[in-house]
Amino acid sequence: MTSDRISQELFTRAGAVVPGGVNSPVRAFRAVGGTPRFIASARGPYLTDADGNEYVDLICSWGPMILGHAHPAVVEAVQRAAALGTSYGAPTRGEVELAEEIVERTSVEQVRLVSSGTEATMSAIRLARGFTGRSKIVKFSGCYHGHSDGLLASAGSGVATFGLPDSPGVTGAATADTIVLGYNDLPAVEEAFAANGDEIACVITEACPANMGIVPPLDDFNLRLKAICAQYGALLIMDEVLTGFRVSRSGWYGIDGVAGDLVTFGKVMGGGLPAAAFGGRADIMAKLAPAGPVYQAGTLSGNPLATAAGLATLRGATDEVYARVGHAAETVAALATAALAKEGVPHRLQTAGNLFSIFFADGEVRDFAAAQRQDVKRYAAFFHAALEHGVHLPPSSYEAWFLSAAHDDAALERVAEALPHAARAAAEA
Ligand code: PMP
């Protein structure tokens, strides 16, 4: 690496005007220490920072960039849309086409576009409460569903990275109706329903959790959740913000086939612009304004640039793309585990389709408590050595590693060169 002087300067300037110097906490490198790289541009599998250093990108904007950065079809679609005006506050053809594409690929019958995953899950919860006339919701510790008040209890992602038990500013009233259970713990779900079944509006779960590292559902976990919800008249909300259109052309639904009554999407469907969605059974979605009484709205919902980027991305996400992403993910996972094994660093690879993460601990991770047993210090050393050797990993061991179809042999070769250095640093930490 040449230098990180300009990133350091920018981080200092940012710290004066932006809390913690970043606009989303995990970007700050708090868990791994050091200065976040300020990115100037990206192309294919590579990021270039403000100092001119190039990295193989294993974050991919935390999921959206499944085609790689600055994909020509996406860039062209956004440029064409921008030239026609950036926002109208009135409906467009692009919104219809994006909704049709989502309905065609997934289990949902109808879909409403929003601008972030947080909005999608927050709105799905409101709709579930409006539809059932009930107040309580069930979520699982270590699952992250965005930062709305009622869903921040025992959350994954940045909340896990920073070890926050919950967030100041979230009132007791906002979480009083949130029941938090251990992930993969079906007996706990059964008990919660036995005690509160007629008050529970919904269970929300990541279709396959990826925000405490990758912790796949045990064999019939999602199926049993669906059956329990049905038995008690509650709704199952499958959060596919991260997995949707990434782990298969539909999402985790394409792998385990369990349809949520409501499903949330984001990331890939926006192609790197702010677009997300929630959808589900038509009879439930019919309760949403203006068709029904449950209110939900957005000035920039279905924004023409975001829908153009999303459509171009989904249309580009062919079977061949998923095969390439799968191959790249398998290759990187194998390289990382081989390097760590060679250095005798305790680790555990967990995969979910083309997503994977590596826990710096021994033994299977089935829930958040197990995920928290890892050696964060070793990950920090691993992360920085990889960065020094031109590979930008997620700056937290609670996050998945993301590949794209643009991660070709040349990029994978660079990862192969960097990871042994990273593993050595982890061994010495
Ligand atoms: N749900 C899941 C499963 C997520 O992974 C995320 C973001 N990582 C969200 C919801 C929130 O999405 P956003 O950051 O777009 O608000």
Automatic annotation (TrEMBL):
Cite the NCBIfam families for this sequence: hemL (TIGR00713), PRK00062.1 (NF000818)
Q: In which pathway does it act?
A: Porphyrin-containing compound metabolism; protoporphyrin-IX biosynthesis; 5-aminolevulinate from L-glutamyl-tRNA(Glu): step 2/2
Catalytic reaction annotation: (S)-4-amino-5-oxopentanoate = 5-aminolevulinate
Q: What is its EC number?
A: 5.4.3.8
Q: What is the protein's name according to its record?
A: Glutamate-1-semialdehyde 2,1-aminomutase
Report the enzyme's class at the first EC level: isomerase
What family is this? Belongs to the class-III pyridoxal-phosphate-dependent aminotransferase family. HemL subfamily.
Q: Which residues carry this modification: N6-(pyridoxal phosphate)lysine?
A: K267
Q: Which organism is this protein's natural source?
A: Actinoallomurus iriomotensis
**Subunit structure comment from the entry:** Homodimer.
Gene Ontology terms describing biological process: protoporphyrinogen IX biosynthetic process
